[in-house]
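Dear Dr. V.,

Thank you for agreeing to look over these. As mentioned in my earlier message, I'm a first-year student in the group and I'm still getting used to reading structure tokens, so any feedback on how I've presented them would be very welcome. I ran two proteins. I've put each sequence directly above its structure. The first is here:
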Amino acid sequence: MSSKKLPAFFAAFCLVWTCSLFAMQIERNFPAGIKRGKMTVTEYAEIAIDGKIRLLTPGLIIYNEDNMKQNVGSLDVRNVPVFYKQNEYGELERIWILTAEEARLQLPKSGS
């Protein structure tokens, strides 16, 4: 392949690869024992779920709609639907920001 065709080939490859990523449907499996709520991040990077400020664990992981991890400081959301998991002290451990399709799902059944 000539060096003149290489940039065009690379650009086409990148375009096809990017489009295929968006076309993939990522089905997320949510654990049992999660709760549903509406999350807002305050101007002080505090998380409120259903209007109540929540305590966070140091290892809190927030997954956005694309299942990518985000930190609380990079979020600017108001009243978005989420699933969340708390530890035994009521602190938030995991948060999943839901897509429109996921927001229509019922909560997973709790294990006995």
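The second protein is here, in the same arrangement:
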Amino acid sequence: MQKITPFLWYDGKAEEAARLYTSIFKNSKLLSSNPMSASIEVEGQSLILFNGGPMFQFNPSFSLSVSCATQAEIDEYWDKLIADGGAESRCGWLTDKYGLSWQIVPAHLGSLLGGPDAAGSKRAMQAMMQMNKMDIKALEDAYNDR
């Protein structure tokens, strides 16, 4: 059991969201579900989804970040999470149909934005700022000045 578990507030859609998230991520499972909440594990991260009602909404100040090894992985998660009412945002961020923010990013983004070549990092940052969905090749090309 992890010591700290994100507790996410939904307006009556906790079980639906739990089933969506566990269908998107291969290494995931529904741990429990009842009318008030659902517990899931996604890629080793436990989450509790709670049906708290309409009083509080998600906002981008909280997001789940997904580290992706390939462009195909980025594309897959991006497309599935924005489906049926989600929305693209900038710099690898999106909002799913429940309003939860996600960051779908290359696993080596930190080395591109903070690598030993300061000019390359600046170019990669500038390229990223123009993107919605991350493009690994474009970020690498910007870093390497190609």
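From my reading of the second output: Residues 71-82 form the longest helix (12 residues). The chain has a mean pLDDT of 97. Does that match how you would interpret it?

Kind regards,
E.
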